[in-house]
Automatic annotation (TrEMBL):
Transmembrane portions of the chain: 1147-1172
Source superkingdom: Eukaryota
Signal peptide: 1-24
SUPFAM superfamilies: vWA-like
CDD domains: PDC1_HK_sensor
Keyword Secreted applies: no
PROSITE patterns on file: VWFA
A Pfam short name: MCP-like_PDC_1
Organism: Nematostella vectensis (Starlet sea anemone)
Domain VWFA: from-to ranges: 284-487
Full protein name: VWFA domain-containing protein
GO molecular function: voltage-gated calcium channel activity
Annotated GO CC locations: voltage-gated calcium channel complex
Keyword entries, A-Z: Membrane, Signal, Transmembrane, Transmembrane helix
Amino acid sequence: MATRQHVNALALVAVVTLVHCTYANTPSPSATEFIGKLDGRLEELRRDCLGVDIIQNEVRNKVSSASRIDGKKVIRDLAGLLRERFDERIAALNAIKKGVEEDYAAVKASGVLKECCKLFPSSLEYHARFKSKANSKSFCEAKAKSAGNVRVLGEGIYSAMSRNLKQVGMKRLLRNIKNGVLKECCKLLPSSLEYHARFKSKANSKSFCEAKAKSAGNVRVLGEGIYSAMSRNLKQNQRLKWQFFGSKEGLCTIYPAAPLKECHAYDNRLRPWYTSAAYPSTKKLVIVLDTSSSMASRVELGTKRRTRLDVAKAALSTILSTLLPQDKVGVVLFNSKVTLAGSSGVDECYSTRLAPAGRFNVNYLKDFINRSRPGGGTQYQNAFKAAFTLLKSAKSGDGGGEQSFLLFLTDGGPKDDALEVERLIAQNKKEMEESRERVTIMTIGLGKDEHMKDFLGRLSKNVGSKYSQVDNEAHMYSAIHDYYSHLQAMATKATKNYILSPPYADAWGLGLMITVAVPCFSKGEFVGVAGVDLIMSDLLSEVQYFNQAGSDSFAFLAHLNTDNALSHPLLPPPETLTKDPSLVNILALEQGEAFKQFFHGTLKHIKENDIRTISLPRRRLSTPKGGLQAEGVAEHVLDYTYYCSRVLEYVLCVALPEVVTDLKITENNGDRLYYHRMDLVQEDEVCSYTDTISYKDKAVVKFSAKAFLNPPEYLDVEENPTLIEKYMNHANQGHQDTMFLPGIVQTAKLSKGLVNYWIHGEHKQYLSQIPRRFFGSANGVLRFFPGEPLPRNYDHCSRHWFNKANAFKGQLTFTTPYRDPLGAGLIVTASHSIDIARGSSPSLFGVVAADLTMEFFQTMVKMYLGIRCKDVTSTTCLLVDVGGYVVYHPSFAKRDVFEDESLVTAKHLTEIHGDIAEYLISNGIMTKKTCQDFVERKLQISYEIDIGDKEMVSNIEWTASKCDAFSLVRVPSTNLYVLAAFASRHSTCYESVPCACNVTCTTQTNEECECPCRKRLEYNYCLDENAESSVPICAPPSSSTFTRPSLPVDLVRLPDCFPVQCQKITTEIQCRKTFSCSWCTWDKAKELGVPYCADSNACYGGVEGRANPFFRKLIDSNGLGSSSNKTTWRGKVVEALSVAKNIITEYFPLVVATTVLLLVMFGLFLAVFCCCKKPKGYTGLEGYYDGEEGYDGEYNGEGGFEGDEAYGYEEGYDDGLKYYENRGDDDFFQLGEEF
């Protein structure tokens, strides 16, 4: 048998030689020569592995249209739900406010406690328990002679001591006194904390803590009022998150107690929730900063030395960070001359008017300040002139009537005419006041320059400016505190009992949130701000996940005063944001004059509970083409009707495609659903699968948050056996009070036939080859096999494989290689849409998909590509998707790939084959596409390959000094193309790639070659509005990371779900296509003499001794690591002995056969040399054979090569010869059954 196998292998060498001679003379190759049988194999994958036809037929037969959706009812119910959540927080907030003000009133009523030496005798009476006179209804203080500034304690310690007097036991006495004074949040003991799902972090729900700012003044602990209010709130409303009170002195009381990493690092006065309530009036601020040479002076700040300019920059950065999005701001830098932001010609608007203080503009101005360097003199006059020009640029009606501030910071007196400067300031101040523009001029003097002190002091006296002198730069905050004190003085007792903060990133890591806040007063004096948090993902989950009318319907929420969008499908999900967001105007996301007029003319004036509608025909909708913004978006046009209603300060809209109906799903009776958390509830016998737990013959189900009636409740509550049993009872027993949305359970059971086909169907070979298969519906149901526990926040609808199938409906789509987040290593996912007719156009019902390991995919592609691709001496064949991203490349099989996944993930044709990419771009075959990213204010450049109605395009005329000879062939019914690059392994063509590859675009025209990149968006930043454009809007990227549930104890003791004995597999092809096996080819330094099949966790990527880095380490109850996945040298020895036996047994016949074949091949080569001549004028392949200047290099993933091995062919196509071992003559080219 072995003789026959080796004869076949050698025969293939002869065939390839003959093919090379034959096709080298063929200037016009056919598409079949490149695709080969790959299209048929992919069709088998779609039909037999994924089971697309089975689930598509189920949907056609059991899903039908029902009643028409009532848009007004939908918006009424959704708006009512949001109002209820806001009302709950507002009620809790009012309780905290009442508690705070009661505590302040109680202390003020009692005043400063009397000293014990000054008690009136009449207030005392004899107490036997104390054996002296005392007043059991009062307290007193004993103050040491040397005591410094002290504070009056709050009601907590007084109540504790009073209770203690009625209780028995010294331990309780000490404990209650101790509880009267709160711990700092940074000093909480880890043992006192436990994880709470509702807070998504560790906390102590039975205690409070304090966060004290570094610059906090004399402060005190609040009393029983606030603590009682907060604890009652939490008991009455299980959906509440953090509650807190921040005092004006810088002390923040937080409930429940939560740890802070650093003490004095959190200052409540600088947080958005505080500033929005403490300084609610819209502000106009111009910062004027001295950057003269003297600002380079070094000053001591503790143990560090900083320049005076650095100190000023830090202070101004703090001020900029506390501005609200509706505020307006500008910056003037001056020395001997004036410098304005944007004055260089870029962003010129910053030099002519104030800009909205959103995150993007604030960061831009911070960067402008931080880039300044000291130098030059101190010329005041032009600086003040520029500052007043900016202030006056926001006229009445355009921000007019707001409080205006001019903040001037310098370390020296004016070098120009001081009197003229004073007259200029007085005149402009008077002009603004006459036009009812209130302006406050605040000056800060740094250092001890007497001329500066004299001028700024005189200016304060004559013009009414507020002057702060900072002799010691370490006390800089005390100076800018005057700015905040003035703002606080403007705060009056609000007629409104709440204020909604702009969205911001939570300091405790809960993601994006807003705070319902209220200013608190004591006898008319502002004392601080109370707040209750609303996590955006909890508040807006029904808005974010809205798809009641199918995958094309959506909802959004926008602020009516600022026009900023809080939730929209084209914005990143709030839980994915880790920094304060750059807010986006709703008119940028909902473009068109019709909606603009509807928003300004109708929605701005809408009343609570009212509903307004508008029909928007041919509304463009962006759909992501994958998981990266660089993959671009697909656009389709639908007719929509918008239904809108007001909720507090916001407007809520739902967008429904015209003529949409509810879906009626016929349920598959008798189908039992099994939940994916088998680590918590085991409904059948479990087994070990890769690095997790699973069922051997049962698919599992997971419901995304969008599938529940109350998504926040699902996300908040930690899953446990009781809750899971409740889920399954509702799903399997059909409870009337279901916790799922209508149609969810029916959708889950609709896939019964599909999962049975996966597990028990005729194509059982896929059970050992495919890591997992899954069906995800658009309404939030995921069924997959083999199952494993997934985190609650895993949403299949946001994954890149789901996006691809949705963008290319009806086609088999493939992702680029990526690291499997569930531990299978490097994989490619194949997916296909399942569609349904809903209204006038097909709508996405779900996606069926399968994960393919890199080794399986590489092996399959190499086997089935056409005969022309087998000629590795002149052709390199790869697969690229419609966007130009490389899905398959021979170099992806290199050992380095498995050490550095970046070598294969998101590799674009412009990076790998620059000359070909340049040809495709210049000839309009691969065109640049753009989309607008309003979150980052960037224009994203992507690509799209389109050969029209042609089956193939080619360039066989090699351009001088370029490697651009190729054929590009469409793979039918997929998102793939076969690209055949005509180049020799000895060619130096790819040493230099012409395409520019930078994050920021550098080319100027659409015809120039560059990798996908981003550039600055053309946008009016100062007006915060964009010009009307036909350029589509970018979709947010897929969420890429999540935390898997922890492993159950003793997983290593469970039996394997699918036992595979890799060491008994003797052929490379069988080994490579078996999941969890790896063809061991190298040791750490060199290629093995005898390769063998081993467990992938012992020879990951073909390297002996290398573990799969994506596997989690399995621990048994004794704390020992698992050894179940380790392969010893025994496997290698067994394989080596087996191979040796075969060689010795059949040695003689093999030598004879080999000799005969070598003689035949010698004759063929003579025939080729004598007879094969290229056609006259043909240059298609010339230039790739460089003769003595051969090149031996290795692809490094960046367009070049390095090392000693040529382009990966030793591990690439040349290995293909081995694939034909152990095959008979009859099935020499019929290898489909192997898969």
